[in-house]
């Protein structure tokens, strides 16, 4: 699937300390193929790749700490904004009833979603009325009634003798008299978009003036879902999309293109057939789900927010020249207070050996202690910790108000990170890719 393909591409990038334009070209070519294979709209892919190229080349110029991972971040950012950036909530009327219309092709999941949505709103304390406006299939009314019973939500039906427009109108009147908060109108669908259906939906819309017209599309239909959304949007000016059956879609193409093509946001996704399987849609979560690397992304974000680029370059240089001393270690402590831990940063570097770092305790309390200990050392000791023998350790412990064990622990932790840095700096570019990355 898309996830695996993208991860393979990123694996190659993450093994590199520096990216060339050729690396980026190759990576974006692979991303492009992966997206097209996932049934993402061609034009959307084209624009997407253009943006990635522009931004990724900039990264190379900056020579950031880990360019490969920054490309992952860029792809993640762009995927997220492709899907609308943030979760878009349902709108509600300021006062009175909030009419919601569910529209879509036959089998898209309207009726099921109606039940799910009614349940969700009921749990939020709303008084909800479901309305059966699919009068063409005898089983459709029954289906909604069964659902309503299951979740204890009232269902308004006038059978199949009245027109859908009349049913919708009377349902709103009924809701007004009985003080409902939300009215969810389940409409009919067809196998294909047709004029008659669109006219009917348009008339219902005019009659009840819904706050939300939510188009249900089946994620498994890929590009067809996008085409369908364009037609419905053109005629009805929908307010949002509910993408159903995302649990069965391994490609993700529809979710990735539909907002870019229609300009309308996905508000919910259907993740199964059960009542509870309706979730608000979060573009950022979907993006990291597609990339399959949520942990790495949050780490990169943290580092980007707090880590001074220049300082990072200096540190890298010191690591390369194996000049990392306790003075640098202490300086790192200051930075770490704002960003997490040295082990996080080291783990982000290509070829990092995560096991070696587990002994480092970077809690706030520990940092204060560490600073005190390093402050109690002489300059010579800080630059060359090898000279710190037993009697020096005792003196340092006394001077810093700590115990000899604490001094030992710090020196051991420092030694571990230094060892790891040596390891990192002794690795050639080619060798790096052989190491398993975090
Ligand atoms: P409608 O014709 O648009 O009203 O579609 P229905 O609500 O009758 O749903 C058609 C079929 O899709 C039913 O078998 C539902 O159980 C199924 N369905 C609806 N939503 C989802 C979903 O999110 N995931 C899965 N796996 N099935 C769904
Ligand atoms: Mg239905």
| Low-confidence runs of at least 5 consecutive residues | 60-65, 349-359, 427-438
Order of helices and strands: HHHHEHEHEHEHEHEHEEHHHHHHHHHH
Strand count, sense and closure of the main sheet? 8 strands, mixed
What is the assigned CATH homologous superfamily of the largest domain?
P-loop containing nucleotide triphosphate hydrolases
Q: Which second-level CATH architecture of the largest domain applies?
A: 3-Layer(aba) Sandwich
The number of helical runs is 20
Large-scale geometry = elongated
Q: What is bound: which ligands?
A: guanosine-5'-diphosphate, magnesium ion
Distance between the termini: 22 Å
The helix content, as a percent range, equals 55-70%
Rg (C-alpha, Å): 29 Å
Number of strands: 8
Q: Strand order within the widest sheet? A: 3-2-4-1-5-6-7-8
Average residue-wise pLDDT:
83
Proportion of residues in extended strands: 5-15%
Structural class by helix and strand composition: alpha/beta
Organism: Alkalibaculum bacchi
Family: Belongs to the GTP-binding SRP family. SRP54 subfamily.
Subunit structure: Part of the signal recognition particle protein translocation system, which is composed of SRP and FtsY.
Main location: cytoplasm
């Amino acid at each position: 699937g898309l996830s695996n393909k993208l991860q393979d591409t990123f694996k190659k990038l993450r093994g590199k300390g520096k990216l060339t334009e050729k690396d980026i070209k190759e990576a974006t070519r692979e991303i492009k193929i992966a997206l097209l294979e996932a049934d993402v709209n061609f034009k959307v892919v084209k624009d997407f790749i253009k943006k990635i190229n522009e931004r990724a080349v900039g990264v190379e110029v900056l020579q950031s700490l880990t360019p490969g991972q920054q490309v992952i971040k860029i792809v993640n950012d762009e995927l997220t904004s492709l899907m609308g950036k943030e979760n878009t909530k349902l709108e509600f009327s300021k006062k009175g009833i909030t009419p919601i219309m569910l529209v879509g092709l036959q089998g898209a999941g309207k009726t099921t979603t109606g039940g799910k949505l009614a349940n969700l709103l009921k749990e939020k304390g709303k008084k909800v009325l479901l309305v059966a406006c699919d009068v063409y299939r005898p089983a459709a009314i029954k289906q909604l009634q069964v659902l309503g019973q299951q979740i204890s939500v009232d269902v308004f039906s006038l059978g199949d003798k009245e027109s859908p427009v009349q049913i919708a109108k009377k349902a709103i009147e009924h809701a007004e008299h009985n003080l409902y908060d939300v009215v969810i109108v389940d409409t009919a669908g067809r196998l294909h978009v047709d004029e008659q259906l669109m006219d009917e939906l348009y008339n219902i819309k005019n009659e009840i003036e819904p706050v939300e017209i939510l188009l249900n599309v089946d994620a498994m239909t890929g590009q067809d879902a996008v085409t369908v959304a364009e037609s419905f949007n053109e005629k009805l000016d929908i307010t949002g999309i509910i993408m159903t059956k995302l649990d069965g879609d391994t490609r993700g193409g529809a979710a990735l293109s539909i907002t870019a093509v229609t300009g309308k946001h996905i508000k919910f996704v259907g993740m199964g057939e059960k009542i509870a399987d309706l979730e608000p849609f979060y573009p950022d979560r979907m993006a990291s789900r597609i990339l399959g690397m949520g942990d790495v992304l949050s780490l990169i974000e943290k580092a980007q927010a707090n880590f001074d680029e220049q300082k990072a370059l200096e540190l890298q240089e010191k690591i390369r020249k194996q000049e990392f001393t306790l003075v640098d270690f202490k300086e790192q402590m200051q930075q770490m207070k704002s960003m997490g831990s040295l082990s996080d940063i080291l783990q982000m570097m290509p070829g990092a050996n995560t096991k070696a770092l587990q002994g480092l305790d970077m809690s706030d309390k520990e940092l204060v202690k560490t600073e005190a200990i390093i402050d109690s050392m002489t300059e010579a000791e800080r630059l060359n910790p090898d000279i710190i023998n037993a009697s020096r350790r005792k003196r340092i412990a006394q001077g810093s108000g700590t115990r000899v064990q604490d001094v030992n622990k710090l020196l051991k932790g420092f030694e571990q990170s230094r060892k790891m840095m040596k390891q990192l700096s002794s690795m050639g570019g080619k060798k790096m890719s052989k190491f398993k990355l975090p």
